[in-house]
Write a structure and sequence with these properties.
single chain, 544 residues, mainly alpha, Serine Threonine Protein Phosphatase 5, Tetratricopeptide repeat, 2 domains, two-stranded antiparallel ribbon, 5 strands
């Protein structure tokens, strides 16, 4: 889908295989639209840009993408701070995940199941087919994409561009109804391929059915005041679909289902009875394209994939799901006080108190207001788990904010040596240095960030931190370039263009810097023109 779709309509049919959508938008054009939408979402304040969370989400995406039906497809995964349970795919392989979905999941496999499902929508060109309908209805593609996502989020944007936002949302009705509906066939196809991707990636194949079942159960009390999760509005789930997901999981593990029979209705939904019989086929080997009855030469002798039991993950998760979940709980809360109250409620609900990950999340909440207390708590957690990068980085931040700069810098230097090339470590260290201030700290921050410079063109957090480091180091020209990139990545390309044009007039630029600025002006100008054509304008520029 282009963005969160409206509930699927029974009367819609899957577009035929001869869809011309691939001719309407080239892969490069799809990537361009997806990138524009991401920048606009950041402009409206929906994105949760955090190096550790982004790194965790990217690791899931890389693993699933490598085992999808199109491993050559590039995916860009991003987190939104909204606590609704939702996820969506859009053009160019851009996939958004709401913080609420991760907070609701009970294990990493369930998040992976949703991501695998969304990736299947991309690989099967369901998104492109939606674009074809958008073209036919003559609704601007980018405008409708942003409208669908903006209207699906509960909270208002933090941008000052209310006029632009209102114009975008006005296109929502037609966009929802005619352009991004998934048919039931689309959803079942995405389920089938998503479960196969889960199996290939080593995640639990039961995770998709488990997550859908819990979401469906959560809506049973809707009449009592509970709201329907947005994910179920955009991805309708009934008991038959859950049963089919269980059936596919059973088939992959080596069992089969003899019948799925509808036996009645409850609250307007059909209820299915599933009967299973055991089989001898090593179906997991088949799902992974391995010869049946023969060992995998990449595995130790005697280990057969089919021998693994129900619910067993071949590779296991990243090991950081609980920490990512609690970091998201801390960062997505409306206020720090609200987050503290949430953790106090969690403490009361657990006889043995907060888990280590929950204690970490509470410490993250208290970093700004109580850095010394947070440092004490984090030091205890790190003593229990010395290799935990998330705790070590938070401890360094707490030490720095408590005025213990030498300890923080020493800790971060050690982490840099232990994790060379790590984006979260480099950005955390650079931000700590920038907060300390001074030319020496600025130059050290530049050194820390420079190895990431070549691969951080689309990294808003990096560009902002690099701009501040350059300012402290006295490199005003590079600081100006980085600030222009920040404006561009925050959905303000017109401002970026003006900043670059102003920077170009400086007399102290060397040939290389001037050529670099000219190249960025040439690259950004078509984006500004396309946004104007789509009807998306920078409100600050309109007021001038």
């Amino acid at each position: 889908m282009l963005a969160p779709p409206a509930p699927a309509q029974d009367g819609l049919r899957l577009p035929d295989i001869g869809s011309s959508a691939g001719e309407l938008l080239t892969p490069a054009r799809q990537e361009e639209y997806g990138g524009m939408m991401l920048r606009e979402l950041r402009n409206y304040g929906y994105l949760l840009d955090d190096p550790l969370v982004d790194d965790w989400l990217e690791s899931l995406g890389n693993r699933l993408g490598a085992h999808s039906d199109r491993p050559d497809q590039h995916y860009t995964l991003f987190m939104l701070r909204d606590r609704q349970i939702n996820a969506f795919a859009t053009l160019g392989g851009y996939i958004g995940v709401n913080a609420g979905l991760v907070l609701t999941a009970e294990r990493e496999d369930e998040v992976a199941a949703v991501l695998a499902h969304e990736m299947a929508h991309v690989t099967q060109q369901h998104v492109l087919r939606g674009v074809e309908r958008a073209q036919r209805d003559q609704v601007p593609i980018l405008l409708g994409m942003i409208a669908a996502v903006v209207a699906a989020q509960a909270a208002g944007g933090s941008s000052s561009g209310e006029a632009s936002q209102a114009a975008i949302v006005s296109a929502m009705g037609l966009m929802q109804q005619n352009q991004i509906n998934y048919t039931r066939s689309n959803e079942h196809e995405a389920d089938r391929l998503g479960i196969r991707t889960l199996a290939r990636s080593g995640y639990d194949v039961d995770a998709m059915a488990d997550f859908f079942a819990r979401m469906s159960f959560a809506t049973r009390g809707n009449s009592g005041g509970y709201s329907v999760p947005e994910y179920l509005r955009t991805h309708p789930v009934n008991t038959t679909r859950i049963a089919e997901a269980k059936q596919r999981a059973d088939q992959i593990r080596g069992r089969t289902v003899t019948a799925t029979t509808t036996v009645g209705e409850v609250d307007g939904e059909s209820v299915a009875r599933v009967e299973r019989v055991a089989t001898e086929a090593p179906a997991l080997n088949q799902a992974l394209a391995l010869p049946a009855g023969r060992g995998n030469p990449l595995l130790p002798a005697g280990l057969e994939l089919a021998s693994l039991g129900s619910g067993t993950s071949l590779l296991g998760g990243t090991g950081y799901f609980a920490w990512a979940q609690e970091r998201l709980r801390a960062l997505s809360a409306a206020t720090s006080d609200a987050a503290v109250r949430e953790y106090e409620a969690l403490r009361r609900s657990r006889p043995d108190g907060l888990t280590p990950a929950q204690r970490y999340g509470l410490a993250v909440v208290r970093l700004a207001a109580e850095p010394a207390a947070a440092a004490t708590e984090l030091a205890g957690l790190l003593e229990q788990d010395p290799q935990n990068l998330w705790v070590a980085l938070a401890l360094a931040e707490a030490e720095a904010q408590a005025g213990r700069h030498a300890e923080a810098n020493e800790r971060l230097d050690a982490l840099m040596r232990r994790h060379p090339g790590s984006r979260p470590v480099a950005l955390t260290y650079a931000r700590v240095l920038v907060a300390q201030g001074g030319e020496k700290a600025g130059r050290r921050a530049q050194e820390v960030l420079r190895p990431l410079l070549a691969r951080s063109a689309n990294d808003a957090v990096f560009q902002h931190t690099y701009a501040r480091a350059c300012e402290l180091a006295g490199d005003s020209a590079r600081a100006g370039e980085a600030h222009a990139e920040v404006a561009f990545l925050n959905g303000r390309p017109e401002q970026a263009l003006i900043q670059l044009e102003t920077l170009k007039k400086r007399g102290d630029l060397d040939y290389i810097a001037r050529a670099r600025i000219d190249a960025r002006i040439a690259a950004i100008t078509p984006t500004v023109l396309e946004l104007r054509r789509q009807g998306v304008r920078d409100p600050d520029m309109q007021r001038r």
